[in-house]
Design brief:
Elements lengths: L5 H34 L5 H5 L2 H7 L7 E2 L4 E8 L4 E2 L4 E11 L4 E2 L4 E2 L2 E2 L1 H5 L7 E2 L2 E3 L4 E2 L4 E2 L4 E2 L4 E2 L4 E2 L7 E4 L4 E5 L2
Parallel strand pairs: 1-3, 2-4, 3-5, 4-6, 4-9, 5-10, 6-11, 9-12, 10-13, 11-14, 13-15
Antiparallel strand pairs: 7-8, 15-16
């Protein structure tokens, strides 16, 4: 007679997995309560398990810079000191490098690019991917969901309003917003 013991082994593994899952959920609830008490916020699991300053430091970003765990960092990205990078951002340095200065606020959902595939797509793969470095100056505020196109340079002390698309350089000390972003005055 042949006996199949695999079913019993599978049941034991499932029970063990369920126990680990219950422990993990309890642990996450404790961490969630701590975050709520400390900062009055609810964050993703990744941000419960990591510290924003450690996330930024692990990429070699400047002293005092913080970034959420769910920020996508691609290629060569340099960030200065005391810059805040919010949740859900895309920092694309894959097309020639992205540099962000000191004391910037990169709000939730901001996307900054150094490449695009427009011509490659339109040409059915004949044309190459476009690449150009992108630069963000010091003391820059990028509002929620701003998109910065490849090759753009944003000067120091610039304010870019929420939901703006920046597809050309912005000189120092200006306030811009819209799609595409247009100058609306001085940032001071």
């Amino acid at each position: 007679m042949n006996y199949d013991f695999s079913n019993g082994r599978e049941m034991a593994e499932e029970k063990e997995a369920d126990e680990w899952l219950m422990r993990m959920r309890r642990y996450l609830r404790v961490l969630s309560r701590r975050k709520k008490q400390q900062f009055n916020r609810r964050v993703s699991i990744g941000d419960l398990l990591s510290e924003r300053a450690d996330n930024a430091a692990s990429y070699g970003f400047g002293e005092g810079t913080t970034m959420y765990d769910n920020v996508l960092v691609l290629g060569q990205v340099e960030v200065g000191r005391h810059t805040w990078i919010g949740p859900g951002c895309v920092l694309d340095g894959s097309g020639g490098g992205l540099r962000i200065g000191d004391h910037c606020s990169i709000s939730a959902g901001v996307q900054i690019y150094t490449h695009h595939t427009v011509q490659r797509s339109l040409s059915m793969g004949v044309e190459p991917i476009g690449y150009a470095p992108t630069r963000i100056g010091h003391g820059v505020y990028l509002g929620p969901n701003v998109v910065v196109q490849m090759g753009v340079t944003i000067g120091d002390r610039v304010v870019v309003g929420a939901n703006s698309f920046v597809n050309r350089d912005v000189s120092e000390g200006l306030k811009v917003f819209g799609t595409p972003a247009r100058v609306r005055g001085a940032s001071n």
